[in-house]
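#struct-pred

JT: dropping the chains for the assembly here, can someone run the whole complex?
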Amino acid sequence: MRLDKLLAHCGYGTRKEVKSIIKKGYVFVNDVMVKQDKYQIDPDNDIIVVNDERIEYQEFVYYMLNKPQGYVSATEDIHYPTVVDLIGDYNHEIFPIGRLDIDTEGLLILSNDGKLAHDLLSPKKHCSKIYYVEVEGIVDDEDQIIFKEGVVIDTGYKCLSSSLKVLKIENGMSYVEITIYEGKYHQVKKMFKAVGKKVVFLKRIQMGNLRLDPNLKLGEYKILEKEDLDSLMSKNMLE
Ligand code: URA
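RK: done, full complex below.
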């Protein structure tokens, strides 16, 4: 693997940024300063040090993104910027695990780990997802019951049981948290529509045990460790 590719892959910046780090002489391979970005690395055996810090190469990378509105959950799109664009132009192998609508904000995991994607998205796994929702209309006890029993959306699909937590009701608006265990297209919006209410703001705040880091501003991301995702996988699945 090329040195610049490896550094970009390990989160040291965009391809352009890491080329500059290499040129400035900050990178050592097996104790020798290397200034060529094309230099070929054996990630399993070479010892690579950047700014006195030894690099641990990981085949798989995981990012937590606080998705802003206006970005599509895809790797490319002809009309809109994608969530992958937010991570940087260097990591073209990563893809979003699951989808948030273009106007939905919040927690999105991106990775190049196809197995994790498969496991998390598998309908059988029923990974829990919590959304903060602002809804036009008053969410009442009857809605709570309907959501618990399973709202019927589309042409007769009965959603799995979900729970609603009403945070505040003010000026004809309801501010709620909903926990769902599946991920159908426009699911939350359709669920509220089914009880005559309109979602005007939607943000995912948790998947399984993994909470959106409150320090991440919209459009910001952080690298996740595999362990964070293992805990996501092992708990909070609907049995
Ligand atoms: N439900 C929706 O309606 N939209 C999303 O983006 C996620 C869940």
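JT: nice. The pocket of uracil is lined by residues 100-101, 104, 186-189, 202 (CB under 6 Å). The chain has a mean pLDDT of 90.
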